[in-house]
Amino acid sequence: MTFKALGIIEPILKSLQAEGYENPTPIQEKSIPILMRGKDLLACAQTGTGKTAAFAIPILHHLYNQGPQNRAERKIKALIITPTRELAIQVAESFTVYGRFTKLRTTVIFGGVKQGPQTQALNRGVDILVATPGRLLDLIDQGYINLSHIEYFVLDEADHMLDMGFIHTIRKIITLLPKKRQSLFFSATMPPAIVKLSGKILGDPEEVVVKPEQKTAERVEQAVYFVHKKDKVKLLIHLLDTKNADSTLVFSRTKHGANKIVKLLQRANISSEAIHGNKTQAARQKALGNFKSGDTAVLVATDIAARGIDVEELALVVNYNLPNVPETYVHRIGRTGRASASGIALSFCDEEERAYLKSIQKLTGQRIPIIKDHPFPDDGAGEFTQTSQSRNPPKSPTANRNKNRRYPPRGRS
Ligand code: AMP
Predict the structure, then answer these.
(1) How many Å lie between the centroid of ligand 1 and the Cα of residue 54?
(2) Most buried among 1, 38, 191, 349, by the most CB within 10 A?
(3) Whole-angstrom Cα distance, residue 87 to residue 265?
(4) Same fold, 4-209 and 220-385
(5) Which one of 19, 95, 309 would you pick to mutate in the ligand 1 pocket, going by the greatest count of ligand atoms within 8 A of its CB?
(6) pTM (2 decimals)?
(7) How close is the Cα of 235 to the center of ligand 1, in Å?
(8) Domain locations along the chain
(9) Would you say 248 and 71 are in contact if contact means Cβ atoms under 8 Å apart?
């Protein structure tokens, strides 16, 4: 299947080609034909599957086919709501990239920053608006945004939206949308509250499910290190010293933990920054920018802050703490090994985290290879190290990779 076979207009095909996308991903192959027919869509898919392009391409296609808008007539025709600022920025960037030969205009709005530049952009005229819920409602209340011309409405990462307590805001926004519209609903999981919310938004939707968990986990080279809690930083520094990874994303369970890891890495002369909910939006964006440009080698993030981080060529993910929700593990390691690349995910497992490791292995149906040969082994790892794999320990998954990659120079922290 090719993008051309999906009937997409030439200007979008051109930008996809420029991006190096050769074929649609499964979610794109399933969703784009439904959306091209104008149907509502309920999609069960998470980040890393190519879901953004799955909704952005048909929306751009339809809007382009409506013909050019003069400045005075430009009305917001498409609204995409995302739970986090990072994801909103990412989604808006995708619209801009895929639509760069269409002359359609995209703007993004989110809280935590001054509203002036955002309202100025809105006043200049916008076709596609990407927004987080709070700032959207705020600017609607202030009269900067009118939703009465919306033809395409997307609720992205609906389950996270609910987790973050946006349900009332979303309900209110829905009441302001025109009845006649095409609605798209994306969620990685479908618990009852989500199904109920989708019923309020969607008409008679077609459903698409892609199961990225196993696929992602299969593509990523994984390994686990049994290590005492107190030795984790030393092990991390050791791995960063020996792995030659260009960009490493480290997951910490807590904000405090993330700050502490950064402090110790910096003390070891490793350039690193933390992003989490206690940082200002400006600080988070700056840290992300430094990481993307390669100025910062290691980004230490909490799960919520890491949502929406999309770094091409992310070489290594380190689970400094194993998550207690196994799906979170799959989500984290999906940060590396994106749509076309493969990646490496290394996990640290201390005494208290062994049950989490079991749940993860159950979910993915995979046994994660154990690396016993490291300077800070936890010899009490018991049943896990009695496996056949540990009797014949696997070679470090990074052993043959990144041979030509140089770890960014030290001392830039
Ligand atoms: P998403 O799930 O929307 O966050 O997308 C995950 C990543 O896949 C992004 O980096 C996209 O740029 C990339 N991507 C999306 N569609 C394709 C495609 N058809 N071929 C290659 N990469 C893609």
Answers:
(1) 9
(2) 349
(3) 27
(4) yes
(5) 19
(6) 0.61
(7) 32
(8) 4-209, 220-385
(9) no
